[in-house]
């Protein structure tokens, strides 16, 4: 079991009102499987992914990643675990603006103290078809290109799990489809575990299992 989530809860204060976004949520994901999470806008999909990635802390319940309970880790160990085991792909790419395309990919490998970071990054930029853009900075790349660099960055570390939050959400349909095909192709090639948040039912069908976030809980679809 790569991911084992039990009785997870998270709420936010909106003014004086407390809204329970995640409520007694359970989820188990086996290694190498692909899971789509559907849900309306505002249903808590991004909140759930930030809890799963350890970027945000739950109020209740627990998350075990490959047997390790995230809440048992100190900040430093959690950061290390994230760098080693979790590949995150965001809707808005989150590339570092002052690093070029190749450096953005290499950084995630350098953090892991890999001595062949540059070569690995080159291998991955080629895999996503952007070797000829390696010296470009993010603001010199199109949306689709930025996302391909972000995909290479997420996969280059050989993550145990890939968390993708509406990765084609800010792209036009044609570019979005290409980006999604790239993700599905690479995930298959690498045998990665994927959790894909999307509101697109067609995309969800590409995953082995689909669940829907409703009322803070996951329902099978
Ligand atoms: N930092 C925050 N502070 C207060 N409310 C938040 C915060 N983040 C998200 N929310 C609220 O939680 C709900 C779920 O948000 P989100 O997880 O972004 O949903 P989704 O990704 O499914 O669109 C929304 O009502 C949103 O306004
Ligand atoms: Mg969201």
Describe this structure in words.
It is a single chain. The protein is α/β, with parallel strands linked by helices. The protein has one domain (3-220): P-loop containing nucleotide triphosphate hydrolases (Rossmann fold). The protein contains 7 helices and 10 strands. The strands form 2 sheets. A 6-stranded mixed sheet has the order 6-7-8-3-9-10, sandwiched between helices. It has a 4-stranded antiparallel sheet with strand order 2-1-4-5, with helices on one face. Helix 3 runs parallel beside helix 5 (143-156), helix 4 packs across helix 5 (143-156) and helix 5 (143-156) packs parallel to helix 6. The longest helix has 18 residues, at 173-190. The chain is globular and about 50 Å long.
Would you kindly provide a brief summary of this structure?
With 221 residues, the chain is an alpha/beta fold.
What are the main properties of this structure?
221 residues; alpha/beta; Rossmann fold; 6-stranded mixed beta sheet; 4-stranded antiparallel beta sheet; 7 helices; binds adenosine-5'-diphosphate; binds magnesium ion
Show the helix and strand layout.
Blueprint: E1 3-14, E2 17-29, E3 34-38, H1 45-52, E4 60-65, E5 68-69, H2 75-85, E6 86-89, H3 101-111, H4 117-127, H5 143-156, E7 161-165, H6 173-190, E8 193-197, H7 201-204, E9 209-214, E10 217-220
Parallel strand pairs: 3-8, 3-9, 6-7, 7-8
Antiparallel strand pairs: 1-2, 1-4, 4-5, 9-10
Helix pairs in contact: 3-4, 3-5, 4-5, 5-6
Bound molecules: adenosine-5'-diphosphate (ADP) and magnesium ion (MG).
Adenosine-5'-diphosphate (ADP) binds at residues 12, 14, 21, 39, 41-47.
């Amino acid at each position: 079991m790569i991911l084992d989530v039990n009785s997870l809860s998270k709420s936010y204060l909106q003014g004086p009102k407390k809204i329970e976004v995640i409520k007694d949520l359970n989820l188990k994901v086996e290694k190498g499987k692909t899971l789509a999470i559907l849900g309306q806008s505002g249903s808590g999909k991004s909140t759930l992914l930030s809890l799963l990635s350890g970027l945000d802390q739950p109020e209740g319940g627990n998350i075990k990643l490959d047997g390790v309970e995230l809440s048992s880790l100190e900040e430093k160990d959690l950061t290390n675990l994230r760098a080693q085991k979790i590949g995150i792909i965001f809707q808005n790419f989150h590339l570092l603006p002052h690093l070029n395309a190749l450096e953005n990919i290499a950084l995630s490998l350098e953090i892991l103290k890999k001595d062949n970071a540059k070569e690995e990054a080159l291998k991955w930029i080629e895999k996503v078809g952007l070797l000829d853009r390696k010296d470009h900075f993010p603001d010199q790349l199109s949306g689709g290109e930025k996302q391909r660099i972000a995909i290479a960055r997420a996969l280059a570390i050989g993550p145990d799990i890939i968390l993708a939050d509406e990765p084609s959400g800010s792209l036009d349909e044609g570019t979005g489809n290409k980006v999604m095909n790239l993700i599905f192709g690479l995930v298959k090639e690498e045998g990665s575990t994927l959790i894909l948040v999307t509101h697109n039912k067609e995309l969800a069908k590409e995953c082995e299992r689909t669940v829907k976030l409703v009322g803070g809980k996951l329902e099978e679809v």
